[in-house]
Amino acid sequence: MKNAIPVYDICRLSDAPSGQKNQEFHVERFGSYVSRHPKSLHLSHGHSFYHMVLFTKGSGKHTIDFTQFTVKPGQLYCMIPGQVHSWNFSGDVDGYIINFSDNFFRSLLLRPDYLEQFIFFSGVSNDGVIQLKNSVLERVVSLFEELLSQSELVKTNGNTDILRVILLHTFLLIDETTAKVHSSAVAGSRQMLMKNFRRLIEQHYKTIRLPKEYADLLYITPNHLNALCQEMVNTTAGELIRERVLLEAKRLLINADLNISEIAYTLNFKDNSYFSRFFRKYEKISPEDFRARFVTTK
User: Could you tell me which Pfam families the record lists for this protein (predicted)?
Assistant: First the structure.
């Protein structure tokens, strides 16, 4: 399958000389990062890595998976591999950018799913955009500055564990200031169940569309699953499944090399007519018009 949306790896975006690029981690001031990529950042693109941007100066718009956010100082963006985004800045911007691979923590942590505990790495656009309070912002900036200085030392000593430790400290600090406080173990178990449901959707959205099938995988009843979704995210289980299918449809539609039939096949619809009806029903626009509107706005 051809892919018209560029998907960047860490080495391609790094400022290090060829042969000295780290395939698992990169940290840089955002101003210099933008100046080196003046055009590519404004076009829709994806990453094969985790991506964090902290703004300390500037304004503009940032679109993540077709949801647009207003850029402000003190704002932190956290994205996971596979998300599609683009920038549209107004004037000069600055801050910090951190890119790290899915494997970056695996040699340090026993739990391969460790990052999944942080809601800002859920892959849901709204969850990954955080406006930091000034007191927290100062601490995060200090940690990012430490990452910058330590990354220079790593180039000579090769020991990246200090980068991992500082980055984990940053995650825990952000999580501490943004996570909802749950007063009981029951609330914690509901949160874990919701997280498992989202994980199952991510794994099976192309082939499993019914809430009952997900409820069976979670060993609960469909009514229990719907009540959980209403309580935790104020929507139904079926809507969460549809949102994920529609998101992938949008990502594929901005790929000019794929026709509607190919997209329908990729998403496991029985034919392109059924896919088109599904898309129009929930997006109030045809797949063809969505594609045309997206292209004309770039």
Answer: AraC_binding, HTH_18
The residue among 156, 178, 200 that closes a domain is: 178
Nearest alpha-carbon partner for 50 in 122, 99, 9, 106: 99
State whether 163 and 203 are in the same domain.
no
CB 21 within 8 A of CB 37: no
DSSP letter at 228?
H
Q: Read off the pTM.
A: 0.84
Q: Are residues 252 and 270 in the same domain?
A: yes
- Alpha helices per DSSP H over 184-259: 185-204, 211-218, 222-233, 237-253
End-to-end CA distance of the chain: 24
Domain boundary among 163, 178, 193: 178
28: tokens are: 């840089």
Q: Which of 217-255 are b and which e, b meaning 16 or more Cβ less than 10 Å from the residue's Cβ? A: ebeeebeebbebbeebeeeebbebbbebbbbbbbbbbbb
How far is Cα 296 from Cα 298, in angstroms, rounded to an integer? 6
- Do residue 232 and residue 286 come from a single domain? yes
Exposed, middle or buried by CB within 10 Å (0-12, 13-18, 19+), for 19? Answer: exposed
* pLDDT tens track for 229-250: 999 889 999 999 999 999 999 9
The yes-or-no verdict on residue 113 having pLDDT over 70 is yes
**pLDDT tens, residue by residue, 259-297:** 999 999 999 999 999 999 999 999 999 999 999 887 654
pLDDT tens for each residue of 58-106 = 999 999 999 999 999 999 999 999 999 999 988 889 999 999 999 999 8
Tell me if residue 288 falls in helix, strand or coil: helix
Both 172 and 189 in a single domain? no
Q: pLDDT tens, 177-221?
A: 876 544 444 566 788 899 899 999 999 999 999 999 999 999 999
